[in-house]
Amino acid sequence: AQKITQTQPGMFVQEKEAVTLDCTYDTSDQSYGLFWYKQPSSGEMIFLIYQGSYDEQNATEGRYSLNFQKARKSANLVISASQLGDSAMYFCAMPATPLGAGSYQLTFGKGTKLSVIP
Amino acid sequence: GAVVSQHPSWVICKSGTSVKIECRSLDFQATTMFWYRQFPKQSLMLMATSNEGSKATYEQGVEKDKFLINHASLTLSTLTVTSAHPEDSSFYICSARELAATTFYEQYFGPGTRLTVT
Question: Tell me: the pLDDT tens digits for B23-58?
Fold first, then answer.
């Protein structure tokens, strides 16, 4: 079974600075993917970024980038130039079954609460 | 972009009554929908996988007779919490996978339904 670990319950960052949110995972699958989602206080899950285990380059989406270190089984999210609107819960997730198995359920980490300070 | 709605967004009910939560894909057809539950300050936990026209698959520990799931069409899945009790109070989130999806990460979350049982 897949396991996602987010060891930072809460993080603070100064506005306009960069912050790294940690995520480590455990899987025996050869082909897998990692997701990051943002959940503001309103509750909706906002997809931020995805990286497949077979991707050579680290994924980047605007101010979000994924520092993917396969050997360490880590997939840290880097947010550059933090904004007040980035204050939210951030969840790392991965498919519960191997890619190509036909199931798409996600296993989530416990989340990190990011607070951006003006 | 693909939009998933949930109705109601919040509901308060008395202990012993049943509550139905709807999950709709507004601009796409969804063969598969997932139901997650999130307790306060916790992560999302998958409850069940719902496939159009077939019985839902429940995760271990989730009572199928208590949480009735129906996926009668390609755009609608419903979760009915039967004989609700205060411990069922939670945030229920659905996600939907597009029929025409070609990538793994093409699944979209609804805004969630907050259930409070008094």
Answer: 999 999 988 899 999 998 899 999 999 988 888 999
β-bridge pairing B4-7 and A64-69: unpaired
Q: Specify the pLDDT at position B111.
A: 96
Q: Across residues B16-28, what is the average pLDDT?
A: 96
Count other Cβ atoms within 10 Å, centred on residue B17.
Answer: 12
- Quote the CA–CA distance of A45 and A29 in Å, as a whole number: 26
Peptide bond into A40 cis (omega under 30): no
**Alpha-carbon distance A6 to nearest alpha carbon in chain B (angstroms):** 11
Instruction: Assess B112–A contact: CB distance below 8 Å, yes or no.
Output: yes
Question: Maximum Cα–Cα distance for chain A, whole Å?
Answer: 45
- Check CB contact under 8 Å for A103 and B49: yes
Total residue count of chain B as it appears in this document:
118
Nearest to A43 by CA among B39, B22, B76: B39
What does chain A come to in residues?
A: 118
Of the listed ranges A19-28, A46-55, B93-102, the least confidently predicted one is B93-102
CB contact A64 to B (< 8 Å): no
Q: What is the pLDDT of residues A50-108, one digit of tens each?
A: 998 888 899 999 999 999 999 999 999 999 999 999 999 999 999 887 666 666 789 99
If one counts every other C-beta atom within 10 angstroms of the C-beta of residue B8, the result is: 13
Measured on CA atoms in the order B65, B66, B67, B71, is the torsion positive or negative? positive
Pair of tokens at residue B2: 């693909």
- Phi, psi for residue A85 in degrees, rounded to 5: -70, -5
